[in-house]
């Protein structure tokens, strides 16, 4: 249960953040995001009841790893689930803005759950249907920006993306059939001319690319350059933080950390991205490191317009070679790198020989707790 002191937030003029977090949690329905079971107010506290995650967070989990860093395969697992969580949030018009290992919790089954949405931004999102004929597996952002279908072809947004593609494909097929004139197919086959291959896998892009905010929020080491400059930022900040998150998972530190917060911010703006020297036990492991570094380099592009995911969102991120072999539809069925051990069973209390009973007089007396004049400020 998350307990928020409303008086403390009101004093800091941040009460609206708690309200936004509650509004966002009420709309979420995803395996890698929290489910809000109940929310209520008690005195000057606001309480949010969610699932308990016995595995702690990924920051603590990283400290337990050899060299305090995750292997490439483990990092790929956690990053892939984080990508799906961000994809869903963006589809719902939510820019997370606070991705870091401390906010990625581990459920009892070993899968992740993002937490803390008090810094998130709610915005409008417009669905787009992208057609990309003959796109390579690791297409660039420029190649991925194909023409879009008519807005009428995009069905209403639903929580599960996989449910959309069947309807989208039918709508797209009807549009192509209407556009094609009778007899065109026979003429093409007779002449032997090569026609443009049909797009059999159109992609639905639901990314709040038009969202803009000038709020200076987040953790210093994870702030995107556009947040620091104050020129306004949108959903591309989540893909920047994904790059920093991935870097810390693999190398045990963030890429631009300085001696002070001011130095860190200056490094984010001016310092080029560099990777520490690593030793690979095999050629395959070295190739995996190269693919990971290429993904991080594209995610950590300082220009949000050139950043991977900045224009078409998760679609181009999921196409990267680092995720080769990942079955995105079955990520939830993959065995996690670590599964938290169940807590030890609590032994039953010894049976009392004599049951203590309160007298009728004691039961009628008002309850006076000890130190009732004191008030807890924090839990």
UniProtKB/TrEMBL annotation:
Enzyme Commission number(s) of this protein: 2.7.11.1
UniProt region (Disordered), positions on chain: 175-203, 357-379
TM segment ranges: none
Domain Protein kinase per the UniProt entry, residue ranges: 1-323
Species whose genome carries this gene: Panicum hallii var. hallii
Catalyzed chemical reaction(s): L-seryl-[protein] + ATP = O-phospho-L-seryl-[protein] + ADP + H(+); L-threonyl-[protein] + ATP = O-phospho-L-threonyl-[protein] + ADP + H(+)
UniProt keyword list: ATP-binding, Kinase, Nucleotide-binding, Serine/threonine-protein kinase, Transferase
Family: Belongs to the protein kinase superfamily. AGC Ser/Thr protein kinase family.
Protein name: non-specific serine/threonine protein kinase
